[in-house]
Amino acid sequence: LVIANFISQLEADDATNANQANCRSALSTLFQLQGFKKEKINCVALQQIMKKPQAGMRKPIKEEQVWNYDQLLKYIKSKSDQKTQLSEIEFLGIVIATIMGYSTLRLIEVHRSTVLKLPKGCWQVKTAMFKGHYTGVTVIFRPLEDLSICPTQWLSSWMNRRKKKDDELPVW
């Protein structure tokens, strides 16, 4: 509670987010060295107070384009005739790339997603944006005219390629 009061005072004095976090770390270390338990030092009130400074210190995600989208589609189209010869890793990479390409999902969001087959060849991808917090995002993919670059076609092929015993395991 002493740390929480101190951090609140720092916030009132317009201390920077990094300064508040550093002071919390320093005081926590001092109290631990004096023999206090971690549960008593890092109480719920302190965790709530530190949410704002920790969120303020997070760096925005910077994404840089590695492939041009047209190049990616040409590559996927060239591999569509060779689906049976593709290794499992390469096949999975193409499936994930099509999902990422046709949606705004990042790799980690696709990795923690679940998929559900819907009627008329559609697929639903549900994911959480942040680990531990369910801020659900649902993306529904519908079939395209060009099946060689269609995410539903690649996803269906991937699910068919998985063995029956793998049905209980995560999709990715």
Automatic annotation (TrEMBL):
It comes from the Eukaryota. This is Tyr recombinase domain-containing protein. It comes from Streblomastix strix.
